[in-house]
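User: My instructor asked us to take a sequence, write out its structure as tokens, and then describe one feature of it. I'm not sure where to start. Here is the sequence I was given:
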Amino acid sequence: MKSLTFALCISSLFLSITAVILPKLAIAYLALSAYVFLLYYLDKQRARNHGRRIPEAKLHLLNLLGGWPGGYCGSLAFRHKTSKPGFVRTFRLTAATNTVATLLLLADTLKHSNQ
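Assistant: Let's start with the prediction itself. The structure tokens for your sequence are:
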């Protein structure tokens, strides 16, 4: 439970900082995160029922595009994909890449708004 609380705090902080500077981007990230959270839930249910799975590449792409807060919370809430080192490693890379790109965009936006 502590890990999920940490994930929610990190995700909320990221989305809050983004919302202050670029509200529309934060809304898009929030919507994408909710969608990715739902996909993690659906994939976990399909895994339990031996159904058709959601491709990992799709999850990684959506995480890279900004849905990683939902992916992070979903993986912990549903205990999904947490024991696959390759998936976890790629998830961390996609989340870090998106975070750095977003921070660069936010910094550039602030720089141009102060001129």
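For the description part of your assignment, you could build on this observation: The mean pLDDT is 93. Try explaining in your own words what that tells you about the chain.
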